[in-house]
């Protein structure tokens, strides 16, 4: 479930990684392990319930690209317009049971928690959407059965391996602004702005309606006056 090697052409596609030496266990530990890199710090420690895959699409305007390449999970590409999400839950749950795991300790459980975060089982709208995605894209059916996280669990401090990508993804959502009417409808993070926008739209439509009524009324009066001659 990870692309190993280099593609013949350099494109902004699946993330491939090189396995030059050592055992498979050493390879996955080196790539997916915590290492000594900088841990990004979020603006807020809590991850709100708005942070779901469905809202990334509806509010953030991002395209969801389902992937079987674990190295691409939560990866943003295309100028932050596309996010990859690993869908093979069966593979992750199988890795929990193997006697000699090839991934670092806690990595598999944390990956499953990222799916619980993005596709919460207690969110009816997200569940309806993901079941359609499973059917349309032939995804793992277990994707809709990842459970849900409590308020305490939805904190960045509980994610070590995926912290940086989660922070970047959350920042991209927070910085997104509505570009289409559908995004304006679904994006209610700023209640005052949302109501102001739709009141303005309503006033505009009402103005057009009464303008049309007056135009039609004027045309009828002219027609009736002409006919009476």
Can you describe what's shown?
The chain has 2 domains: 156 residues, no CATH class; 39 residues. A 3-stranded mixed beta sheet has the order 1-3-2. 47% of the residues lie in helices and 5% in strands. It is mainly α. β2 and β3 form a beta hairpin. The protein is built from 8 helices and 3 strands, in the order ααβββαααααα. The chain is elongated and about 100 Å long.
Shape: elongated
Number of domains: 2
The largest β sheet comes out as:
3 strands, mixed
Uncertain runs are 7-12
How many strands appear in the DSSP assignment? 3
CA-based gyration radius: 25 Å
Strand-residue fraction?
5-15%
How far is it from the N-terminal to the C-terminal residue, by CA? 84 Å
Averaging pLDDT over every residue, what do you get? 83
Strand order of the largest sheet: 1-3-2
Helical residue percent?
A: 40-55%
Query: How many helices in DSSP terms?
Result: 8
Order of helical and strand elements: HHEEEHHHHHH
- The structural class is mainly alpha
Keywords: Membrane, Transmembrane, Transmembrane helix
Transmembrane segments: 195-216
Summarize, please:
Keywords: Membrane, Transmembrane, Transmembrane helix. This protein has 229 residues and is mainly alpha-helical. It is 47% helix and 5% strand.
Please supply descriptive tags for the structure shown above.
229 residues; mainly alpha; 2 domains; three-stranded mixed sheet; 8 helices; 3 strands; elongated; transmembrane
